[in-house]
Write a structure and sequence with these properties.
By secondary structure, this protein is mainly α. The protein has one domain. 92% of the residues lie in helices and 0% in strands. It is rod-shaped and about 140 Å long. The chain starts with a helix and ends with a helix. 0% of the residues are buried. The mean pLDDT is 88.
Length: 109
């Protein structure tokens, strides 16, 4: 009796093969349904990710605009500082020329 339990059945009738085929198809259909559900979830998550990337792109556009404005402000500040330094140097040169002129004029008489 033990030998009969361990030995697999060798007789596969058409009815048994049809039942086996049906069962295999059912199981594969079940697996395919589960896979389809998972892919739907993945697609939904990708849609969420796409939306988040759109938000990030909008934020980066704002940051990019802010950086352009800062660069413009810095260029204007550099221009103002350069003009101020030139004005100070001009005033100092005129002052030195005036002082030297006064000293030369005072010593000449």
């Amino acid at each position: 009796m033990l030998m009969a339990v361990m030995m697999p059945r060798q007789n596969w009738t058409d009815e048994r093969l049809d039942h086996f085929e049906k069962r295999v198809d059912e199981r594969f259909d079940s697996v395919e349904d589960k896979i389809d559900e998972r892919f739907k979830l993945v697609d939904e998550r990708f849609a969420q990710v796409d939306e988040r990337f759109k938000q990030v792109d909008q934020r980066l556009d704002v940051v990019s605009t802010d950086i352009r404005e800062l660069r413009t402000d810095i260029k204007q500040m550099q221009r103002t500082m350069t003009q101020s330094i030139i004005a100070i140097c001009t005033v100092m040169t005129a002052g030195f020329v005036g002082i030297f002129g006064a000293l030369i004029g005072a010593n000449a008489f």
